[in-house]
Every structure is written in structure tokens, then in C-alpha cells.
């Protein structure tokens, strides 16, 4: 059944985790094959020195594969760092806030992660909120309502809010101010013009590998402006000057990223990933929109995420009973990690690149059956 994996029992298992997320079965099989002996070296990748010729080849290959997949221009550096997206909430202002004399930056808050990023940036400079912080994250206000600072050092946004399910379907226009984008949960899922960005960062654990690696793609002219208080580990100039080897990098995670890049290329590249993302999310949203209120997605149509779909079940007052029942039944039937984030509740369907169309179809059929069996509970509470 496609990429659906058996857990060794008489049922299949599909992982819909929001992160760390499902990895392609072909990638895991390849890694398993090389686990004890990488290319006849006699050692595991996990045992290779990060300064060995074998690992340098792995590192360079991963970068070249990514450059090809995303068509990254030559005037951009690719860094493989640590600290996660949260580390970049600090690293970005520490490196870029001083690009302009005013030491200020524009932030648009559209969800939980961009809110955390803006809060962290306030430690290092002046943060201009492009829109007032929303009470709930269900939309992206029209650009005509934004208040942009033409003298900002950079403009920051989160392309896809993993918790809240808000996704930009476009790249914001900032009138020349460098764009910084947290792309942790939707990188490699749609075609992008990288040249429109000053910096992109992404934690690996959604679409590009296991947890532990943080990818940074930065335009070269933005390197070299770090504050004196910037920890050396977060200094882009230091890391770029040392080819991401200033300190020991997450070697095995980088190796796994390279395998994921190979897999994406083999199945059709970013174009195919985008095509699949549209199909998969369309299947789930179509069910929601035709469920007569049984399933609800609180987001405006124009910012619905292709990656993370938050769902409430039933009307207010029936949520708890139905969602607990759904969580229990979905897990017992092999549909794993569908519980919503603790801060918002409900159900969350995460459809990263490794989740197949076939697996999504299986989930939708389960959701239809659950709705049929439990609709009476929606009106009885």
C-alpha cells in the first residue's frame, strides 16, 4: 500500500505527526542498509569524523542537491546549523538587526511561531508589528492594512504556522527591505524564487530530515553584521567562513537530509511535492467543507495551510467528547499523532512531503466513517 508501513501486527500505521515528522520509507530503508557500514568504509556515518573526507563529501553533496532542488543562486550561502527554528529567533536579529542605523525590524504575526520570534527579537532592537497582534490566528490581513517601516533592517514572516495552520500563498512585497522567512514546515513543498529572500531558515524535522539540523539560506551581502554580543555559534559569518564546520555539526542528520533530497529528486522534484500537497490538502478540506459542520476548520480560505490542517469536531460543547473519541479511535486504527497542539486543542492533520496521497485517502475514508457513526453525538451535547 504505497508508503504505508506495517508495525509488525495485523494493521497498518500512518504517521501524521506535526514534527518530528514521517520520513519516506525509501529513505529509512536506505539508511538502514548503510547503518553499520557506510559505502564500505567499515563504520557508520554516525562514527565518521566531521573533518574526514567521507563526511565532507556527504556535506557538499547535500548542499549541491538542495541548491539544485530550490535553484539557489550562487550569491547565497547554505548553512547547516543547530539550535532549531527557535535558535534562529535569536540568531536572525543578532546578525541582521544592525543592517540599518535604526536597529529595527518589521514582523508580521500570523501565528504562534511568528509571535515567539517577534518577542525574542525585542531583546535586540525595535520591533515594528506590521499588523496589531491578533487575538486569534485565522487569517492574514490584506497588505493594504500593513504598516511597513521603509528603514527596517529586515521584514520577518513565518511562511506556514505549524500550530495554527495559517500559510502564506504568496511572497510579501516589502519595497526592497530584505525578507527573512521561517520556512520550517513548508520548505521544498512549493516552487519559490529564492532571489526574493534575504534569508530563509528551516528546522529539518518537518520536510527535510530528522530533528537536529537547522538549514539557513542567506544572501551573501547580509553576512558580516553580527552584534558583538552574538554567540560565535550563531554568527553567520563564522559559520559561512567555516563551511558549517566551525564546531561539530549534526553529521547524521545532514546525511539523512541528503537522502531526503535524493528521494525528492527521484519522485519528481519540488514540482511533484507541490502537486501532491495540493491534492492531499484538497482531499481533507473537501471533506471538511462538505461535512455539514461535523468537521470545522477555523481559517480563512485564502490562508489555509497545505501542510497543517487544524480541525474541530462538532459544535461548541460537543468538541471534547467527539475529539477524544476521534483521537482514541484513530490511534487504535493506526492513524497516529493526529491530536492538535496543546495550545489550541482539536485535531491536526499534518501532510508533509513524506505523507502520500494514498495515505491521505485512507485517512479521509476513516474520517468519513467516524462522521457517519458519530453524527448523533454532535447534536446530543
UniProtKB/TrEMBL annotation:
Kindly list the biological process annotations in GO that this record carries.
L-serine biosynthetic process
Question: What cofactor(s) does the depicted protein rely on?
Answer: pyridoxal 5'-phosphate
Q: Which Pfam families match?
A: Aminotran_5 (PF00266)
* One Gene Ontology cellular component annotation held by this UniProt entry: cytoplasm
Query: What residues does the Aminotransferase class V domain cover?
Result: 14-363
User: Which molecular function terms from Gene Ontology are attached?
Assistant: O-phospho-L-serine:2-oxoglutarate aminotransferase activity; pyridoxal phosphate binding
Q: Does the keyword Amino-acid biosynthesis apply?
A: yes
Q: What is its EC number?
A: 2.6.1.52
Q: Which Gene3D superfamilies match?
A: Aspartate Aminotransferase, domain 1, Type I PLP-dependent aspartate aminotransferase-like (Major domain)
The pathway this protein participates in, as annotated, is:
Amino-acid biosynthesis; L-serine biosynthesis; L-serine from 3-phospho-D-glycerate: step 2/3
Q: What keywords are annotated for this sequence in UniProt?
A: Amino-acid biosynthesis, Aminotransferase, Pyridoxal phosphate, Serine biosynthesis, Transferase
The entry's family comment says: Belongs to the class-V pyridoxal-phosphate-dependent aminotransferase family. SerC subfamily.
> Could you identify this protein by its name?
Phosphoserine aminotransferase
Amino acid at each position: 500500500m504505497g508508503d504505508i508501513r506495517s508495525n509488525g501486527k495485523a494493521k497498518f500505521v500512518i504517521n501524521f505527526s506535526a514534527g518530528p515528522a514521517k520520513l519516506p520509507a525509501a529513505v529509512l530503508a536506505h539508511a538502514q542498509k548503510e547503518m553499520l557500514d557506510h559505502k564500505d568504509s567499515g563504520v557508520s556515518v554516525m562514527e565518521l569524523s566531521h573533518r574526514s573526507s567521507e563526511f565532507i563529501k556527504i556535506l557538499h553533496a547535500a548542499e549541491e542537491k538542495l541548491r539544485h532542488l530550490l535553484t539557489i543562486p550562487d550569491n547565497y550561502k547554505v548553512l547547516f546549523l543547530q539550535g532549531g527554528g527557535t535558535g534562529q529567533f535569536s540568531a536572525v536579529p543578532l546578525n541582521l538587526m544592525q543592517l540599518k542605523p535604526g536597529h529595527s525590524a518589521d514582523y508580521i504575526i500570523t501565528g504562534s511561531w511568528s509571535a515567539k520570534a517577534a518577542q525574542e527579537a525585542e531583546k535586540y532592537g525595535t520591533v515594528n508589528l506590521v499588523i496589531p497582534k491578533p487575538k486569534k490566528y485565522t487569517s492574514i490581513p490584506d497588505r493594504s492594512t500593513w504598516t511597513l517601516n521603509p528603514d527596517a533592517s529586515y521584514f520577518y514572516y513565518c511562511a506556514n504556522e505549524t500550530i495554527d495552520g495559517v500559510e502564506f500563498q504568496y511572497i510579501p512585497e516589502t519595497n526592497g527591505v530584505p525578507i527573512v522567512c521561517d520556512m520550517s514546515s513548508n520548505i521544498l513543498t512549493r516552487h519559490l524564487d529564492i532571489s526574493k529572500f534575504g534569508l530563509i531558515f528551516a528546522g529539518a524535522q518537518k520536510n527535510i530530515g530528522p530533528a537536529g539540523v537547522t538549514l539557513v539560506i542567506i544572501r551573501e551581502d547580509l553576512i558580516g553584521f553580527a552584534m558583538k554580543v552574538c554567540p560565535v555559534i550563531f554568527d553567520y559569518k563564522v559559520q559561512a567562513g567555516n563551511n558549517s564546520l566551525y564546531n561539530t555539526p549534526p553529521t547524521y542528520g545532514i546525511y539523512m537530509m541528503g537522502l531526503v533530497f535524493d528521494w525528492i529528486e527521484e519522485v519528481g522534484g519540488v514540482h511533484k511535492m507541490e502537486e501532491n500537497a495540493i491534492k492531499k490538502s484538497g482531499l481533507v478540506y473537501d471533506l471538511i467543507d462538505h461535512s455539514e459542520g461535523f468537521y470545522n476548520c477555523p481559517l480563512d480560505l485564502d490562508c489555509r495551510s497545505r501542510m497543517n490542517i487544524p480541525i474541530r469536531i462538532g459544535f461548541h460543547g460537543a468538541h471534547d467528547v467527539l475529539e477524544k473519541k476521534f483521537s482514541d479511535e484513530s490511534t487504535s486504527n493506526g492513524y497516529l499523532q493526529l491530536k492538535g497542539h496543546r495550545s489550541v486543542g482539536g485535531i491536526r492533520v499534518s501532510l508533509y512531503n513524506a505523507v502520500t496521497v494514498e495515505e491521505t485517502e485512507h485517512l479521509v475514508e476513516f474520517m468519513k466513517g467516524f462522521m457517519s457513526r458519530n453524527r448523533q453525538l454532535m447534536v446530543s451535547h
